Amino acid sequence: MSNPTSDDTFRIFSNEEPPLAYWDEHQNLVGYSVEVVRAIQKEMGDQSDIIIHHPWIRAYRTALKEPNVVIFSAARTPERENKFHWITLLSRNLLTFYTLEETDLDLKTIDDLHHINSIAVLRGGVREKFLEDHGFTNLTSTSNHSQALKMLSSKRVDALLLYPSGLRILSKQNHHEKVRFNARYSFRLGDAYLAISKKTPLRLVQKWQKAAQTIKENGTFEVIAQRWQAKLLNDYSIDSHIQDGGLNLWNEKNTAPVIQ
Q1: Which of 88, 156, 175, 205 has the fewest CB atoms nearer than 10 Å to its CB?
Q2: Per the database record, which ranges form the Solute-binding protein family 3/N-terminal domain (predicted)?
Q3: Does 143 share its domain with 24?
C-alpha cells in the first residue's frame, strides 16, 4: 500500500440508502457498501472521507463534470455505461412499490401505478428517470428516502419506491414500526456499483480497480458481506445471499423481473 499524493486526493460521495449507506442511532456512517468502500480505501492507502450528499443529484452531476469524484452506490444501466469508470460491483437490489396496507387500490402490474395520484421517489436518481422514461407523470420528488417514508406514512403520497431492506431500516429509525405497508410490485433495475468520474486520470482509476480486485480475492470482501448477511437477518429479518462478488438483497428463490 502506498500513501496518496496531493494529486491522488478524492471526493467520495454516497446517498443515504439503507442498508448500503446510512446513519446509525449514534450518527455514525455505517452500511454494507460503506464498509466495502473503506476496505478498498485501506488497501490503496486512501483516507478520504465518505460524504452523504443531499440531494443525490448534486453528487451525481459533480461526478459527471469533475475528476477524482467517487460515487456509490450507483446503478449501472445502459444509459450510464459510458459516463463513468465502473470500479466494482457492490450489490444487487430489489425495488418495490409500497402503499399503506389500508389503501384500497387494485395494483397488480407496474402499469396500474400510472393511475394513482402520487409516488414518492428520490430526486435525480435512476428510479426517477426510469419512471419518467416509462411515462409516469404522477411523481413527487424527495431529497431523501426518510422524507418519502414520512410522506407515505402521513398519506401525503399514495406510494413510494424503495428497497425492502431500506424500508425496514428506515421504519425503525423513524419510529414507523407500527405503520403497515403493502408491497405492490417488485423488480430489479441495474446493479449497484462503486464508480469514479470519467475525467479521472486512468492511473488513479486503475488504482481503485486493483484495490477492489484485491479485497475480493483475499477474503476481505467475503468477511464484510457475511457480517452484513448476519446483521440484516438478525436485526431486520432481511434475507440476502452472496453471488459473484456482490451481495444480493433478497431471498435466493425470488424471481422478480429485471427491467431496463
Answers
A1: 175
A2: 9-232
A3: no
